Amino acid sequence: MRFSFGNSVLVLFLVFANTCLAQDSTGVWAAFEKIKSIEITNEAIEELELLLESSKELELDNLSNSIKMTLASKYLIDGSDNKGLRLYFQLSNTLTKSQEYKQLYDVYISLSKYYEKKEFPNNAADYQLNALNLADSAQLSFDRALLCFDIGRQELLALDYDNALKFLNISDSLCVDQQRKGLLLQVLRLKAQVFEKTNQLNEAVVVGERILSLLDKNTNRRDYTKQLNNLGSIELKRGNKERALKYFLQTLKERESANYPDKSHVNLLINIGVTYQNLNKPVDAKIFLERALNTVDEKESPGLKAEIYDLISMNYLVDEDVYNAKIFNDFGMDLMTGEEPEIEMELHLTASMIYEQLLEYENALFHYKSYLEIKDSLDLVKRIGQEELLQQQLYVQQTEKEVQALVDKGEIKDYQLEQLRLASENKDIQLKNQELDAKQKLQGARLREQELEAERTEQELQATKTREENQRLKLKQQELEEEQNRKDILLKDLEIEKSNIEIQKTKSIARNLVIIVFLAVLVMFLALYAVTKIRTSNKMIQVEKTKSDNLLLNILPESTAEELKTLGKSLPRRYDKVAVLFTDFKGFTKITETMPPEQLVDSLARFFAGFDDIMKKYGLEKIKTIGDAYMCAGGIPDPLENASERLIYAAKEMLELTESINASKADLGQDTWGIRIGIHTGPVVAGVIGNYKFQYDIWGDTVNLAARMESSGEPGRINISETTFNDVQGKIRCTYRGEIAAKNKGNVKMYFVN
């Protein structure tokens, strides 16, 4: 503990002054005023203890209470909890008897702060509630809104959500009445937490929107965007995925407009990616998850990077792309060092699902066991922490009881004579009460005897009435039985006559029924023959129509095909922004000279079939193939959001597919094919040409420049134009190549996708 020279001199002076003044009340007050504000030291505490004894001898009760308050707080700060609590409990008893409610209020608040610091919210809330009740009953001047907020906060920490909400609602109303915007925002944030923890998500949204209405995005944009993100999280918990996505995208827009650093977006980008996953939109999810991945430094945040790898892996797994799911899961596993057990646990769980899909059950079982081991260890750590906290709480409670017992024992000594006097008075009162009780019991016994006699008389009368009623009912029953016998005889005669008539009627109906059934069977046979003939004809027509429609859809885009079927023609259209991609295999002409035709066609089919699947996955349109060249576009015939991004991600998967096919070719001793990919974004004209063999095609300078991007590229790389780069800047990493000479185009700025 620090103890300055100045403080040392002051303490020595006060000790000297206390000795010289010898029971002088003015000197004691002056010494207390000087020492109560100095730094805590053993000497300062000892001086306060001496001053306390002097104040008791001089019978200065107010001064004694003030010294006790100061000394108690210094004991607690110094770590002498038992001494501090003992003084506070003594003060509580003394101030209650003397009705010094303002000081008693301060004692309750000090005890609540002590327990809050010790992280015992139940105890802290109890003393705050004592302070509130005391202030209300004694009509003290205090900040009721702030105190109710503090009680609600402690009740929330103690997991008593009902009481937390009760006091937060009181504080809410007071803040509105008093126009205290700052405190109101704090209250509303805690209310939102309570509603979330109790799964009252509709109420949480209402409170969240109140918070948003109180925030000015121009002056407090950080809090504004944070609240937008919170609302998105709540809507996601509600299952309202579309609304959650709306809030997340709005948050991203506000943050980007405020020029926040990209690294601060990472959790938001993850939220957007996860929401797209939940909406079953894996392509969009992949875009935002990879943006998050590109903003995280592996060395600075390996755990966060591994978490994103796990999310991307799960996204591929949901999309049934087990190959890429395993690649990204392996990336995440490589970053694990044992310091991030929660993330490592999730990676093992994802890995077990991947290997299960791959039918590698031994590996799946290994990773699932690893997941369970980490989960069990985390649960054990949590339980140990809870047990330690419980032991601390029990220790504090025991200490409080022991201190309170000591205080109570001291109070008993001071009030023994008063208790003896009260005991004598109580004895006289007890004797008088006993005499009164005896009289009341005798009177009650007499009344009970009269009530029993009246009950016996009433029971006898009721029994007589019951016997008479039973006799009357017996006679009535005999009369009813005789009448029923007469009716039964008459009914039997009628039934015999009716039976004879029914026999005759049945014979006649049977003959007619045979004739009707024969005619009905004949009609049904003829109708069935006609229906079968018509259905067979319609089915053949429908089969042929389906074949025709499918053939047309294999040639043309769906919307264009529908237009052609409806109108008999398709009009050309101009599109302002279309992303166009060209591929070409390096040295294909040389390959054709040495490869058998059947093998050549088979190889091209493997590549192009895979490319077709990728186009379908990303919502892109295949235009045509020319020899070994493959052409596709994004944004036609229907507009497409993020067309350039989608085309680049598709191009990456085309490279991955090419590498995979080349690997199998190499295993078989065959030549591998190097592929160049070029992309440009701009305006095009699109339409159908031909009267018999329809061909959907696109024209314009954009197509020519996309072809130049391919021819100016390198095998295994994606070469894009400046226009495409500007479209994806900040979302996809690229490397500037400089100005490259392009045929008939001069020098053109080009970029390689990383």
Can you describe this structure in just a few lines?
By secondary structure, the chain is of the alpha+beta class. The chain contains 26 helices and 8 strands. The chain has helices at 5-21, 25-35, 42-57, 61-78, 81-98, 101-117, 121-138, 144-157, 161-178, 181-197, 201-214, 221-238, 241-257, 266-278, 282-295, 302-318, 322-334, 341-357, 361-414, 416-555, 558-567, 588-594, 597-617, 643-667, 701-711, 722-728, and strands at 573-585, 621-626, 629-634, 675-689, 695-699, 718-721, 734-742, 746-753.
Structure write-up:
The protein is α+β, with helices and mostly antiparallel strands and 754 residues long. Among the domains are: 98 residues; 105 residues, no CATH class; 185 residues, Alpha-Beta Plaits. Helix content is 75%, strand content 9%. It contains 26 helices and 8 strands. Strands 1, 2, 3, 4, 5, 6, 7 and 8 form an 8-stranded mixed sheet that branches. Strand 2 and strand 3 form a beta hairpin. Helix 1 packs parallel to helix 3, helix 3 runs antiparallel to helix 4 and helix 6 packs antiparallel against helix 7. The longest helix has 140 residues. The chain starts with a helix and ends with a strand.
